[in-house]
């Protein structure tokens, strides 16, 4: 039994056939976007929603008791409930590509495009600037294999976590010939920081993955936590969440995909505290491309454990890649990155 190691890209796209596309809307008045994860045709999917204020689409059909077990794309978007419209554009593009569940004669198909959103309304200045179906279609066409851009891009453009700027992060691992990857959009009510100001996620790193992360500054951490205590008084339900996708090349059933999504949330709990609150809409989708063999029961447990670690590591990469932003001149907000605020 070998220890897990990072994939070549340390990204969800280390799973063969997985593609990722971002559309970033950060022009004046905007801080939002769309991220699309496109799997190979025939990929089996699952989902687990833990947050108390979710914004989702097509999650019920991924329940193991439901008929359809294939996923054509997963949409992650800003814009709160308005941002779910971006999935319409992805749905249309998937249909144009001939993808979908057959419902009649040849060509009569309905793509399955589940989606989840984060709250970023007004952070760029204009509360009404939200991702559209056109943005979703653009993200579909931007989807590529290879390296994944991280930080304040795509669905993570207007994200914040624990009062810091959040974003998109990804990580992967290979264990016993199976590849697992995670892509997370970090926009949590809770903080990614330990009491000393360091990132919780670095404790889940593989080998030297986080060796170059700078140490946190004790004085900065003290000021940060005092600020966080005051910020709790202004919290409103439904204004935060962490959403993401876990993918693997293992051959899994729909039931096993559901369990993989459930265990993957453990990684979120290792990287953000508190998590799964009434203020968050935390949701994790799973994709199993089926390129490999079906794992036995113990191998399946190991895949689940590795997936949870990938989720935690992806949260860390999102926070490390984020950059500070100030949109107060446009009527929006200012957000410091973890690096600028705590090191």
Give your account of this protein's structure.
The chain is built from six helices and 16 strands. By secondary structure, the protein is an alpha+beta fold. It has a five-stranded mixed beta sheet, covered by helices on one side. It has a five-stranded mixed beta sheet with strand order 3-14-13-12-11. The mean pLDDT is 95.
What is the secondary structure topology, with strand pairs?
Layout (H helix, E strand, L loop, with lengths): L18 E7 L6 E7 L5 E6 L6 E2 L16 E4 L8 H11 L4 E2 L6 E2 L4 E3 L15 H10 L17 E2 L2 E2 L1 E9 L2 E10 L30 H14 L9 E8 L5 H18 L11 E6 L8 H25 L3 E2 L7 E2 L2 H5 L1
Parallel strand pairs: 5-8, 13-14
Antiparallel strand pairs: 1-2, 2-5, 3-14, 4-8, 6-7, 9-10, 11-12, 12-13, 15-16
Strand order, sheet with most strands: 1-2-5-8-4
- Main sheet makeup: 5 strands, mixed
Characterize the overall form.
Answer: globular
Put simply, the count of helices is 6
Low-confidence stretches: none
Mean pLDDT score: 95
Distance between the termini: 38 Å
Computed Rg:
19 Å
Sketch the topology as an H/E string, one letter per element: EEEEEHEEEHEEEEHEHEHEEH
Number of separate strands: 16
In oligomeric terms, what are we looking at? single chain
In helices, the fraction of residues equals 10-25%
- Beta-strand content bin: 15-25%
Structural class: alpha+beta
What labels describe this entry?
343 residues, 5-stranded mixed β-sheet, globular, 6 helices, alpha+beta, 24% helix
Summarize the model shown.
This protein is an alpha+beta fold.
């Amino acid at each position: 039994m070998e220890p897990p190691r990072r994939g070549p890209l340390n990204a969800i796209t280390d799973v063969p056939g997985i593609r990722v596309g971002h559309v970033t809307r950060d022009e004046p008045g905007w801080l939002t976007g769309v991220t699309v994860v496109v799997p190979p045709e025939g990929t089996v999917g699952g989902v687990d929603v833990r947050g108390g204020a979710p914004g989702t689409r097509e999650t019920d059909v991924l329940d193991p008791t439901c008929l359809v077990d294939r996923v054509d794309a997963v949409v992650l978007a800003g814009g709160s409930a308005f941002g779910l419209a971006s999935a319409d554009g992805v749905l249309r593009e998937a249909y144009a590509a001939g993808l979908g569940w057959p419902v009649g004669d040849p060509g009569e198909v309905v793509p399955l495009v589940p989606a989840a959103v984060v709250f970023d309304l007004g952070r760029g200045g204009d509360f009404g600037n939200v991702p559209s179906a056109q943005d979703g279609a653009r993200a579909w066409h931007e989807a590529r294999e290879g390296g994944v851009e991280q930080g304040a891009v795509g669905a993570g453009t207007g994200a914040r976590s624990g009062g810091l700027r959040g974003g998109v992060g990804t990580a992967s691992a290979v264990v016993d010939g199976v590849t697992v990857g995670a892509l997370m959009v970090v926009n949590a009510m809770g903080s990614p920081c330990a009491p000393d100001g360091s990132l919780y996620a670095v404790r889940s790193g593989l080998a030297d993955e986080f060796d170059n992360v700078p140490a946190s500054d004790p004085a900065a951490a003290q000021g940060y936590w005092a600020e966080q205590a005051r910020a709790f008084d202004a919290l409103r339900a439904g204004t935060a969440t962490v959403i993401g996708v876990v993918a693997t090349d293992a051959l899994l059933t729909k039931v096993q995909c559901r369990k993989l999504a459930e265990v993957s949330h453990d990684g979120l709990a290792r990287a953000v505290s508190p998590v799964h609150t009434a203020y968050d809409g935390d949701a994790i989708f799973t994709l199993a491309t089926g390129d490999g063999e079906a794992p036995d029961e113990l191998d399946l447990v190991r895949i689940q454990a590795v997936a949870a670690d990938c989720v935690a590591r992806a949260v860390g990469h999102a926070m490390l890649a984020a950059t500070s932003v100030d949109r107060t001149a446009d009527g929006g907000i200012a957000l410091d990155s973890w690096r600028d605020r705590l090191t």
